[in-house]
Design brief:
It contains 3 helices and 10 strands; from the N terminus they run αβββββαβαββββ. It is of the alpha+beta class and 202 residues long.
Length: 202
């Protein structure tokens, strides 16, 4: 009887210890992404504040710096898991865009800072004024830059709005000459990274 009681006590102790370890692990995962690191701008669009977003491919950790980010590094999987857990994305789906907000009257300045920021790292071997592809839809422009991280292809897609009715892409001589719409209620532009893809597949 005493032996059976000791076994039950041991089993209960093991369950308590395992539960505590699990709770600590969950807590550490939750604490890695703090409130404000991921801000929902609209459905499936987010402002993120990470220093670097880390993608994975073929066992490689592919680090992508984030403009205006300063909250430490996070893996793309951890970002998605956080969004699923907090009902920000449907399970199995990714973001539509990341968003950069600006003060009114400073959107063009912020856009130029964004381009120069990435020219200093992932786009250092790319001519900023010669994107791999430009797509125009009325006054909206999608700009595509192809680059590689550790031999893995990526595309940076930047979506901007000029506020005009129509744009002739043939007249765009310099990306820095494009005037973004400074008159919107929320001055923004959008961007997204495509891993293992080139612009001709988008």
């Amino acid at each position: 009887m005493e032996l059976k009681t000791n076994r039950i006590v041991c089993l209960i102790c093991m369950i308590i210890i395992l539960n505590c370890n699990y709770m600590n692990a969950v807590s550490e995962t939750n604490d890695k992404i703090k409130k404000g690191d991921v801000q929902e701008f609209s459905k499936s669009e987010f402002i993120i504040k990470f220093s670097n977003l880390i993608y994975e491919k073929n066992g490689k950790r592919l680090m992508i710096p984030i403009f205006q980010g300063n909250s430490g590094d996070i893996s793309y999987k951890e970002f998605l898991d956080y969004c699923y857990k907090n009902n920000l994305l449907e399970k199995g789906w990714g973001e539509t865009y990341f968003v950069i907000k600006s003060d009114k009257g400073k959107l063009n300045k912020t856009f130029h800072e964004f381009l120069n920021f990435y020219k200093g790292n992932i786009l250092k071997n790319v001519d900023i004024n010669k994107p791999a592809k430009i797509k125009v839809d009325g006054g909206a422009i999608d700009i595509y830059y192809d680059f590689e991280v550790d031999s893995i292809p990526f595309t940076l897609n930047v979506n901007i709005s000029t506020g005009k009715k129509d744009i002739d892409s043939r007249l765009i001589k310099s990306i820095f000459d494009i005037s973004l719409n400074e008159n919107g209620e929320n001055p923004i532009f959008r961007y997204i990274f495509w891993k293992n893809k080139k612009s001709n597949n988008l």
